Amino acid sequence: RRENKRRAERVDGAEPRNKLPIPASSLPTDPALYSGPFPFYRRPSELGCFSLDAQRQYHGDAQALRYYSPPPTNDQGPNFDLRDGYPDRYQPRDEEVQERLDHLLRWLLDHRGKLEGGPGWLAGAIVTWRGHLTKLLTTPYEQQEGWQLAASRFQGTLYLSEVETPAARAQRLARPPLLRELMYMGYKFEQYMCADKPGSSPDPSGEVNTNVAFCSVLRSRLGSHRLLFSGEVDCTDPRAASTQPPACYVELKTSKEMHRPGHWRSFYRHKLLKWWAQSFLLGVPNVVAGFRNPEGFVCSLKTFPTMEMFEYVRVRVQGCSPFAQNTVVQDDPRLVHLFSWEPGSPVTVSKHRDAPYAFLPMWYVEAVTR
Ligand code: A3P
Ligand code: MG
Ligand code: MG
Question: Is residue 186 pLDDT above 80, yes or no?
Fold first, then answer.
């Protein structure tokens, strides 16, 4: 069993390449620079979890976790109307509220005394959201959306928190009605596939409230970087071979029905890369996709094992870029290094103090300093 475990912990036998001296103001992201072997990624282990309720309030437990409950396979297949309930049974989360790392920091405050490896472990770690790591990992392949990451070092730990770019904000505020409905449909699919209790059936008659979230907190290591991060998990499979999280978790996705080889090629190249990165980082073994037809009905499902996606996406990722660790040297919770990236350009860095970029909340800094 130990041998299996060791094997599963490695993506390949590669150790990270030597660090390159990189100037602080401009950092390269050309895929060719990262075409070496994928860096070592330790199999993530779950440290704990938390839930956000219908009012987006934090709870230090698994109350928001849902249970994977696919339709019986002996039927003709699913017929999920993803538009049902829109917009009258939809409570979307208020996207104007920038939560930054707050929920994760709340969890960390409650658990930092009990972390394996002691306070020394945390002092050498990066603390962030899984979604931010996904963006970093897929940067060399991203052709549309840039990102901004705020970084602060505090008591040795490097905290990374995403900042919404002006372009992303403008796009969000001008989001066309069709795109809003498409967003709803992704969550509606989850409602058709998940039950509130193990062994019970999904109930698609209720509301879709996107404030509700179950988040897993994990530790891992990418190359030489220790990671403590959290990611939202769609559901757990009560019938999974391993009951131990994150191996029992399932990621749900929707995508357009595909009818031509060209559709599949484009799907592999663009969507699957992101699906893979998101699930791989958290250690989710399977992604279950629902394919929707032009009328918004899901009539077919397909399971993609995460480790098999790797073959299709041929990743050359930016995993070993040590930019933030090397640049953010000064230990100061009020100081922010803002890393900005736009497709086709190198990463740039600027320094800021306090508002609006400082993101470590007073309640966290004071509690940790005390
Ligand atoms: P699908 O992507 O399955 O269609 P996640 O898949 O990460 O669990 O997210 C659930 C749903 O949230 C997505 O469903 C999509 O509807 C919406 N969503 C997530 N990230 C989004 C983004 N960057 N832009 C628009 N919608 C997003
Ligand atoms: Mg999700
Ligand atoms: Mg999902």
Answer: yes
d(CA 269, CA 90): 32
Please work out whether the CB of residue 234 comes within 6 Å of at least one atom of ligand 1: yes
Find the helix packing angle between 306-313 and 273-282, rounded to 10°: 140
pLDDT at 11: 32
Both tokens of 235, joined, read: 């559901």
Q: Quick one: pLDDT band at residue 17, thresholds 50, 70, 90? A: very low
Distance of CA 31 to the CA centre of its chain: 21
184: CA distance to ligand 1 center in Å?
Answer: 9
CB count within 10 Å of CB 176 equals 9
Predicted pLDDT at 270: 84
| 249-256 and 235-236 beta bridge pairing | antiparallel
Nearest-10 crossing angle of helices 362-369, 102-111:
20
- Cα 234 to ligand 2 centre (Å): 5
Once rounded to an integer, what is the mean pLDDT over residues 118-133? 94
Residue nearest to ligand 1 atom 17, measured at CA: 183
Sheet holding 58-59, edge to edge: 26-27, 347-353, 335-341, 147-154, 157-163, 125-129, 225-232, 213-222, 45-52, 58-59
- Testing ligand 1's pocket by substitution, the residue of 138, 250, 253 carrying the most ligand atoms inside 8 A of its CB is 253
Asked if residue 131 has its Cβ within 6 Å of ligand 1, the reply is no
Q: With a cut of 90, say whether residue 265 has pLDDT above it.
A: no
Query: What pTM was estimated for this model as a whole?
Result: 0.91
Judge if the beta carbon of residue 153 lies within 6 A of ligand 1.
no
- By alpha-carbon position, which residue is closest to atom 4 of ligand 1? 186
How far apart are alpha carbons 287 and 304 in whole angstroms?
A: 5
Interhelix angle 273-282/130-138, rounded to 10 degrees, is 140
Q: From the CB of 187, is ligand 1 less than 6 Å away? A: yes
DSSP structure string for 276-336: HHHHHHHT--EEEEEEE-TTSEEEEEEEEEHHHHHHHH-----TT--HHHHH--SB-TTEE
CB-based contacts of 164, cutoff 8 Å, min separation 6 = 98, 148, 172
Residue closest via CA to ligand 1's atom 25 equals 183
Ion ligand 3 residue ranges (Cβ < 5 Å)? 234, 252
Question: Is the distance from the beta carbon of residue 237 to the nearest atom of ligand 1 less than 6 Å?
Answer: no
